[in-house]
C-alpha cells in the first residue's frame, strides 16, 4: 500500500473523530470509568449528564449528611469555591441549589468534563473562570453529601 | 573502519548489505517497501508494546512505545533527576542512600521484568546499578522506583538483575572480583589470585516485590559478565558467563584474552537453597543499604543491614559447574524451552550452544576435565549441542522468537543474525547502525516470546542523524521479524547508552491496576495538608514547616512572613487535585536544590535554606491551567532576631507592616 495513501486515511480517521476529545484513542474511553459521553444533541441541560437521573431530597435537611459533605468539600472543593456568592477560582456556592437541579449538581460534580463540553451555561462560565472544573474523584456518596452541604448553605432546615 | 563508516555517499545496493562484509555504508538504503507504515502509529492511537530501556550511564529507565519508538517517560532510578525532584526532595533522598552515604549517580545496564510461570506478568521491572552495586525494583502501577537494595562483596554489578521464572530470585554477579567486604581489603593488588573472590547474590523477591539478599555464593576470582535463569526443564538452574578466568589484574584487554576458552558457570540454585536450609552458609559481617518507598506516606526509608549469608562454592561441590566456553563469553542466554544455553564469546568466531540434558548427563557421568578453584570443569564436548559456524564477528547477545529461531547481535560486524536453534544454520542477517550491543524481542528471554518485533540497541550512530557536536545520540532500531526475513522498519534516538531492554504487551501493563492519582484520603504523609483549611506554617526552633496546598491555580498559603536568616524552611506541598495527569510543580528562588513535581494527591517536601535577607518568589513549574502563570507566592526572610511575627495568609491583604 502506498505510504501517502495510508497517511491520508490515517489523517481522515483522526479528523473525523478529532472533535470529541475523549475519542482521540478508541481505548481511552473504555479505560475511563467516571466519565461518559454521548451525542451532544441529546444533552439535557436540566439534568446534565452522568449517572444520576433522580435524586430524592427527602423533606428537610439531613444534618449528618451535610456535615459529611462539609468534610469532603474541605479537602476537595474549598480551595476553589467560597460559600458566598463571590467567585474564587470557580463560582461561589451561594444559591446553587436554587439555580440547579439536584441531579445536575451531582452529575456535574462527578462527571465534569463531558458536561463542560456540552452545557451552554457551563461554557459561558468557563469563559469567566478560565479553569475547567477538575474531576476530584468524588464517590457517589461524596457527591450526595456535598449536595446536602450546599443545601444547608442555602438555608434549608 | 572509521573511514568506511564515513563513506556516506557511496551508493550501496541493499543486497550487498545482506551478502557482503556486512558493513553498512549508507544511511538510507535499507528501508524499503511498506516499512514506514509498519512503524506508524497514528496520533491518538496506542502502541502495541511498552519497551523498558536501560539508560546506561544516565542511570535512569526510559519507556518507549513499540513499534512507534515514541518516548513516553524517563523514570529516575539511580541518578538524581531535577526534573522530577528525584534525590532532591526530602522524601526521595533515602532512595539513593548506600553504605557509602548518599550516591547521586549510577550506571543502569540491564532491565528485567518480573515473570510468572516463565511469562512476563507486568508487575515490576528490575534494574542494576553497576558502579555502587545495587538492584532496583520499579513498580509498573506507578512507574516509580519502589525499592533499591545494595549488594555487599561486589564491584561492578554487571551480570544483573536476571530473574527466575516465578520471580523467586533476581541475581547479581560481581563483574570485578574483589576481596570480600568482611575481609581486609588492604592487600597488594597483585595478590588477586589469593585474595580476590567472586560473589553472586541471590536476592529473594516477596509477594509485594520486597527484596532481601537470601544468600551469596563465593567463587574463585573471575569477572562475571551476564547471566540468565533456566526455565521449564532447567528451572532451578542459573547460568553466568565469566571472563578473565586468567585472573589478571592489569591490562585485561590482553591479559584476560589468553585462554582459548573461559567459562559459563552453571549454578544449581535449588541445591544452594538446600545447603542454606541445612545451615551450610556462613554469616558474614557486611554493610549494605536497603531502601524502600512507602506509597502511603509518599516517603522512602533507608535501613543499613549488617549481615549476609555466604556459601562457599569450592566446599559445596555440587552447586556450581564450569562449562568451557570460547572465548571471553559475554551474553549467556537460555531459549524458551529451557534446553539450549547459548554462550557468545566476544572474541569467538562461532557461537557455542549447550544442551541442558547433556549438562545433566555430564554431571551424572562426572565427565570432568579438571577443576577451577575447586569447582568441577565439565568436558566441552560432553555438554555441547553444537556450534553455529561463521555467524559474524563479535557475537554478543541472543534472544528468541518462540518459533525455534535465535537472533544474535554481532558487535564487530554490526548486524543481527537469525539462526535455527536445532540445526544451527544461519537463516538471515540484517545490518545495524552501528556496533549493536543488546537486543530485545518482547518476551524474548521468557518462555513465551511475542516474536513480532526485534529492537537492536546500538553504541554508535555516526552519520545516521543530524550531528550534535562530538557526541551523538545513541540509537535503537526496530525490525519486523514476523516473516522469514527481518525487515528494518524504524530507528530512533535513545537516552544514555541503552543496554538491555524488556518489552511487554501494552494491555498487560496498562490494565494491571495503573495508578491515576493518589487518593487524598489514603495520604498518610506526616506533613500532608488535606484541604486548604489544613494549610499552615509552624515554627519548631530554627525549622519552619510550611504545610502548603496546591490546586489549579494557587498555593495556600501564598504569603509567608516571619522567617529568619539561619532558618531551615521545609515546604511540604500537597497537591489537592484528584484528577489524572495534573501534577503541580514548586520552585523557590535561590534554592540549592531541585524543584518538586507533586503528583495529584501526593505530598512532597523541598528543603530551602535562605542565604540572604529579602523577599523570595515561589511558583508552580508545571503548566496546570490558563491561570498557571498566576500560581505563585512570596516568602519574606528577615534578619535573625527581627521583630517580625510568623504570619501566613491567602487572599488577605493586610495593611503594610513595619
Ligand atoms: Cu500549577
From TrEMBL, chain A:
<dbReference type="InterPro" id="IPR036909">
    <property type="entry name" value="Cyt_c-like_dom_sf"/>
</dbReference>
<keyword id="KW-0408">Iron</keyword>
<feature type="compositionally biased region" description="Low complexity">
    <location>
        <begin position="32"/>
        <end position="43"/>
    </location>
</feature>
<keyword id="KW-0349">Heme</keyword>
<protein>
    <submittedName>
        <fullName>Cytochrome c</fullName>
    </submittedName>
</protein>
<feature type="region of interest" description="Disordered">
    <location>
        <begin position="28"/>
        <end position="49"/>
    </location>
</feature>
<keyword id="KW-0479">Metal-binding</keyword>
<dbReference type="Pfam" id="PF00034">
    <property type="entry name" value="Cytochrom_C"/>
</dbReference>
<feature type="domain" description="Cytochrome c">
    <location>
        <begin position="64"/>
        <end position="154"/>
    </location>
</feature>
<dbReference type="InterPro" id="IPR009056">
    <property type="entry name" value="Cyt_c-like_dom"/>
</dbReference>
From TrEMBL, chain B:
<dbReference type="GO" id="GO:0050304">
    <property type="term" value="F:nitrous-oxide reductase activity"/>
</dbReference>
<dbReference type="Pfam" id="PF18764">
    <property type="entry name" value="nos_propeller"/>
</dbReference>
<dbReference type="InterPro" id="IPR001505">
    <property type="entry name" value="Copper_CuA"/>
</dbReference>
<keyword id="KW-0479">Metal-binding</keyword>
<dbReference type="InterPro" id="IPR008972">
    <property type="entry name" value="Cupredoxin"/>
</dbReference>
<protein>
    <submittedName>
        <fullName>Sec-dependent nitrous-oxide reductase</fullName>
        <ecNumber>1.7.2.4</ecNumber>
    </submittedName>
</protein>
<keyword id="KW-0186">Copper</keyword>
<dbReference type="InterPro" id="IPR015943">
    <property type="entry name" value="WD40/YVTN_repeat-like_dom_sf"/>
</dbReference>
<dbReference type="InterPro" id="IPR011045">
    <property type="entry name" value="N2O_reductase_N"/>
</dbReference>
<keyword id="KW-0560">Oxidoreductase</keyword>
<dbReference type="InterPro" id="IPR041114">
    <property type="entry name" value="Nos_propeller"/>
</dbReference>
<dbReference type="InterPro" id="IPR026468">
    <property type="entry name" value="Nitrous_oxide_Rdtase_Sec-dep"/>
</dbReference>
<dbReference type="InterPro" id="IPR051403">
    <property type="entry name" value="NosZ/Cyto_c_oxidase_sub2"/>
</dbReference>
Amino acid at each position: 500500500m502506498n505510504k501517502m495513501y495510508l497517511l491520508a486515511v490515517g489523517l481522515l480517521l483522526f479528523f473525523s473523530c478529532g472533535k470529541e476529545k475523549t475519542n482521540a484513542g478508541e481505548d481511552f474511553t473504555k479505560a475511563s470509568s467516571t466519565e461518559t459521553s454521548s451525542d451532544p444533541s441529546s444533552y439535557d441541560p436540566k439534568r446534565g449528564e452522568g449517572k444520576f437521573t433522580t435524586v430524592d431530597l427527602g423533606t428537610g435537611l439531613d444534618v449528618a449528611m451535610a456535615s459529611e459533605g462539609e468534610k469532603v468539600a474541605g479537602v476537595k472543593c474549598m480551595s476553589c469555591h467560597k460559600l458566598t456568592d463571590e467567585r474564587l477560582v470557580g463560582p461561589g456556592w451561594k444559591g446553587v441549589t436554587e439555580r440547579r437541579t439536584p441531579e445536575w449538581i451531582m452529575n456535574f460534580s462527578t462527571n465534569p468534563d463531558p458536561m463542560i463540553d456540552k452545557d451552554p451555561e457551563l461554557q459561558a462560565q468557563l469563559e469567566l473562570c478560565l479553569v475547567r472544573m477538575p474531576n476530584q474523584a468524588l464517590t457517589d456518596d461524596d457527591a450526595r453529601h456535598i449536595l446536602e452541604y450546599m443545601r444547608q448553605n442555602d438555608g434549608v432546615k | 573502519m572509521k573511514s568506511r563508516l564515513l563513506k556516506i555517499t557511496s551508493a550501496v545496493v541493499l543486497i550487498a548489505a545482506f551478502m557482503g562484509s556486512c558493513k553498512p555504508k549508507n544511511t538510507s538504503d535499507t528501508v524499503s517497501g511498506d516499512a514506514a507504515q509498519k512503524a506508524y502509529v497514528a496520533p491518538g492511537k496506542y502502541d502495541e508494546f511498552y519497551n523498558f530501556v536501560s539508560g546506561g550511564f544516565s542511570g535512569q529507565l526510559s519507556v518507549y512505545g513499540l513499534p512507534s519508538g515514541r518516548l513516553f517517560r524517563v523514570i529516575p532510578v539511580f541518578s538524581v533527576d531535577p526534573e522530577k525532584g528525584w534525590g532532591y526532595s526530602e522524601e526521595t533522598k533515602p532512595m539513593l542512600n548506600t553504605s557509602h552515604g548518599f550516591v547521586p549517580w549510577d550506571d543502569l545496564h540491564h532491565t528485567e521484568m518480573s515473570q510468572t510461570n516463565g511469562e512476563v506478568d507486568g508487575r515490576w521491572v528490575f534494574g542494576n546499578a553497576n558502579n555502587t552495586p545495587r538492584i532496583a525494583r520499579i513498580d509498573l502501577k506507578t512507574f516509580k522506583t519502589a525499592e533499591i537494595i545494595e549488594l555487599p562483596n561486589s564491584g561492578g554489578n554487571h551480570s544483573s538483575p536476571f530473574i527466575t521464572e516465578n520471580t523467586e530470585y533476581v541475581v547479581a554477579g560481581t563483574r570485578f572480583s574483589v576481596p570480600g567486604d568482611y575481609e581486609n581489603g588492604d592487600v597488594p593488588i597483585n595478590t588477586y589470585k589469593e585474595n580476590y573472590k567472586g560473589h553472586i547474590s541471590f536476592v529473594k523477591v516477596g509477594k509485594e516485590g520486597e527484596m532481601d539478599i537470601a544468600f551469596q555464593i563465593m567463587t574463585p576470582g573471575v569477572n562475571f559478565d551476564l547471566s540468565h535463569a533456566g526455565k521449564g526443564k532447567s528451572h532451578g538452574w542459573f547460568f553466568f558467563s565469566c571472563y578473565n578466568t586468567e585472573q589478571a589484574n592489569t591490562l585485561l584487554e590482553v591479559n584476560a584474552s589468553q585462554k582459548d576458552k573461559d567459562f559459563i558457570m552453571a549454578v544449581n540454585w535449588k541445591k544452594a537453597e538446600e545447603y542454606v536450609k541445612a545451615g551450610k552458609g556462613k554469616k558474614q559481617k557486611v554493610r549494605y543499604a536497603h531502601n524502600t518507598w512507602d506509597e502511603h506516606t509518599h516517603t522512602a526509608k533507608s535501613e543499613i543491614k549488617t549481615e549476609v549469608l555466604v556459601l562457599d562454592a569450592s566446599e559445596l561441590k555440587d552447586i556450581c559447574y564450569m562449562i568451557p566456553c570460547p572465548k571471553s563469553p559475554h551474553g549467556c542466554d537460555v531459549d524458551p524451552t529451557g534446553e539450549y544455553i547459548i554462550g557468545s564469546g566476544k572474541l569467538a568466531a562461532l557461537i557455542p550452544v549447550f544442551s541442558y540434558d547433556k549438562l545433566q548427563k555430564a554431571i551424572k557421568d562426572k565427565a570432568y576435565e579438571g577443576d577451577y578453584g575447586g569447582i568441577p570443569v565439565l568436558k566441552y564436548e560432553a555438554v555441547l549441542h553444537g556450534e553455529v559456524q561463521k555467524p559474524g564477528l563479535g557475537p554478543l547477545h541472543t534472544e528468541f522468537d518462540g518459533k525455534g529461531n535465535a537472533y544474535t547481535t554481532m558487535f564487530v560486524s554490526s548486524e543481527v543474525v537469525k539462526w535455527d536453534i536445532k540445526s544451527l544454520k544461519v537463516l538471515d542477517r540484517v545490518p545495524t547502525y552501528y556496533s549493536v550491543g543488546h537486543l530485545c524481542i518482547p518476551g524474548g528471554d521468557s518462555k513465551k516470546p511475542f516474536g513480532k518485533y526485534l529492537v537492536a540497541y546500538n553504541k554508535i550512530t555516526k552519520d545516521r542523524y543530524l550531528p550534535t557536536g562530538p557526541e551523538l545520540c545513541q540509537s535503537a532500531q526496530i525490525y519486523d521479524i514476523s516473516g522469514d526475513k527481518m525487515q528494518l522498519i524504524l530507528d530512533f534516538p535513545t537516552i544514555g547508552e541503552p543496554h538491555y531492554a524488556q518489552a511487554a504487551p501494552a494491555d498487560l501493563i496498562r490494565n494491571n491496576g495503573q495508578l491515576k492519582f493518589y487518593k487524598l484520603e489514603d495520604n498518610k504523609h506526616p506533613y500532608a495538608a488535606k484541604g486548604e483549611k489544613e494549610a499552615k506554617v509552624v515554627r519548631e526552633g530554627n525549622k519552619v514547616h510550611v504545610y502548603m496546598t496546591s490546586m489549579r491555580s494557587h498555593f495556600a498559603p501564598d504569603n509567608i512572613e516571619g522567617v529568619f536568616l539561619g532558618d531551615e524552611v521545609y515546604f511540604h506541598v500537597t497537591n489537592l487535585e484528584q484528577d489524572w495527569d495534573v501534577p503541580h510543580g514548586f520552585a523557590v528562588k535561590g534554592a540549592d536544590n531541585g524543584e518538586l513535581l507533586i503528583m495529584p494527591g501526593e505530598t512532597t517536601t523541598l528543603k530551602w535554606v535562605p542565604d540572604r535577607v529579602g523577599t523570595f518568589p515561589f511558583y508552580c513549574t508545571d503548566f496546570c491551567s490558563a491561570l498557571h502563570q498566576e500560581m505563585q507566592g512570596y516568602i519574606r526572610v528577615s534578619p535573625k532576631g527581627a521583630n517580625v511575627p510568623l504570619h501566613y495568609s491567602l487572599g488577605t491583604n493586610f495593611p503594610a507592616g513595619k
